[in-house]
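Fold Annotation — chain and its backbone
Next Lines — sequence and tokenised fold

***
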Amino acid sequence: MAEPIHRRDGASADGSASRAVLTIDGPIAEIALDGGPLNLVNAQLLRSLASALSDVAAATAIRCVILHGGAARAFCAGSDIHELATLHEDASERKILFEDMVLRRLARLPMPTIAAIDGPAIGGGFELALACDLRIARRGAKIGLSESRLGGLAGNGAVRLTRLIGPARAKELLYTGDTLAAEQALAWGAINRIAEDGTALDAARALAATIAARGPLSNRLAKTLADAAQDGALDAALSLSTAAQQQIFDSADLHEGVAAFLAKRDPVFQGR
């Protein structure tokens, strides 16, 4: 793996370092959270993550992004409670709107994204994972939106989780603040895979390599269409799919893929 190209330091409420580290190796980018043993979400971590996401979005050669918890024992255990204690009427400008912007920026990255969950993904941590396209968890890892235990609310997460697993199951998790083990999360559709051997990060890297070997233009357009199927009217999404299909037929990648198939060789996609 290449050396980190983005590392912006800050300090959490307890004085520890808090940052996101972006590493790019060929067509695959990794963003490692580095905010102490629990990777608590605070303003510094969000600023660094927002900057890393901007760098990724502008890098047209990247074909897949992995978000993971780095060396921490948690993927991300949610908001820094010390920071919450200082927020009242000014919470919108100091936290809510900025956090929502970061989650939207993650969700709207043009290339496929994977959350590698090797430790607890709780509260705001699970909201980060929900903003990714795919989620892979280590067996036994806990996930959940626990805000109701503190009288809080996972606003962004409530919407994304409901779209993912349906209102009845989402409401149960939101109302109780209970967590799910990876096995139950998989059965409910909250995650895509469980890492059977090795870490979730190992499994995410293997999946990312597979994704990166496929047509990058087709994967970006597939993400656009899948999101449109959820976010918009059916007719509008189908109209978008027609335009996307034409873009594919106009691309060099499709013709390279056909030529490679006929020649019985691996395709070399250029993303155009």
About this structure: Residues 6-213 form a domain with the 2-enoyl-CoA Hydratase; Chain A, domain 1 fold (CATH 3.90.226.10). The two ends are 26 Å apart (CA to CA). Residues 6-15 have pLDDT under 50 and may be disordered.
